[in-house]
Amino acid sequence: MTEAPPRRRLVDLSPLREPAFGRLWIGGAISGIGAQLTVVAVGLQIFDMTGSTLAVGLVGGIALLPMIIAGLWGGVLADAFDRRRVLIVSSLVAWFATLGLVALSMADAATRGSEHAIPVWPFYIVTTIATVAATISGATRSAITPRILPQHLISRAAALNGISMGVQLTLGPALAGVLVATAGFSTTFAVDAVLFTAGFLGIVTLPALKPDGAAPRAGLQSLRDGLVFLRQAPNIRTSFLVDIVAMTFGRPFALLPAVAALAVGGGAITVGILTAAAALGTFLTSLFSGPVAHVHRYGVAIARSIMIYGGCVAMLGLVVAVMQTGWFGPVGESFAEVNIPALVIAAIAMAGTGASDEVSAIFRSTMMLTATPDAMQGRLQGIFTVVVAGGPRLGDLYVGILATAVGLWFPPLFGGLAIIALIAVIMRAQPSFRNYDARNPQP
Fold this sequence. Notes:
Layout: H1 19-50, H2 53-80, H3 83-111, H4 121-148, H5 154-182, H6 185-204, H7 220-231, H8 234-249, H9 256-263, H10 267-287, H11 298-323, H12 340-371, H13 374-405, H14 410-429, H15 431-434
Helix pairs in contact: 1-2, 1-4, 1-5, 1-6, 2-4, 2-13, 3-4, 3-6, 4-13, 5-10, 5-12, 8-11, 8-12, 8-13, 8-14, 9-10, 10-12, 11-12, 11-14
């Protein structure tokens, strides 16, 4: 029998003592800083070129269908082939896409204002390629975890992954704001390309991770088998659904360039601060994640954390609505023209979204990894990756359309309240999810 883990407040570092996981985790944290830097810089680049929040939101909307296909097919590949090899190839594709962004930003800087200025659509193509590669990498990386760690360390590894993501989302956006403001877009993307090398070292030093037993043939039947399993897995299916609700109606990041320009002020630096605030919430939650080993009612924990998330998103929308009345004076894109009280409240709201989303993520990912058999991990992780990455892209499209049609304040305020209501309905309709007990994991 596995001994009960000791009571602790801080995160448990035991998974890092497993060499393969430790190298993968450290490399992923470093390269992820560059990836998040690029996510913010692409939004700033497109907003700088077009002045349109809808154009920024289209980054996610255009990539959505290719990302869905990549997630599903990437999961099939992860179950059919050596997961290390799949991760190497997909990571290299993402790196070449980053080099493409370097070239495009240099071309934009050289031709801006002339009759030969480049259009915005090449950025959509390159970011879509990067999204496809990152989706396949994400599905494969997650499917690797239960192969290189014992089951009792999975929830603690999920918390450590939250710390990694917190570091990425704290340093990446903050660095993006500073680099874009001081060195320009091409240098910002080039930094991502350099940081990639650390993550790649963590990947190439993994052991071979060929399928256990008879590998499923990579094809449509393998994908159908994964979907059949999901239909018979109500708890995992509901965990996907609640995350889609949260990310579709509560994804404020595509709004931030406009919020920084029109509501709070401060331009690129404010975008970096608000994005980093969300990451700080993620990081602190993961840092003090010791008690997760003693939580067993995963469904209840997930639902409550997502409701809190919705409340924080609504709080951000309220700040934007109040600031757009003009009662508190004008703001501008220079950081000297920022409204400090509004920035502080907005940052608190963003930190709350990061903290509550991380609680949900820890329990959702642990449920996924412990309740799914290894032979099905890749395909289910592919679907999971589509949900985790697809929800935010639906959210980007949602805020882009409604911010343009109604107002900048409407998508977060309405969306936050919608999240709270919808999660309450789902919990009432899904008793098995509400009663889920991690001591007896059932898909």
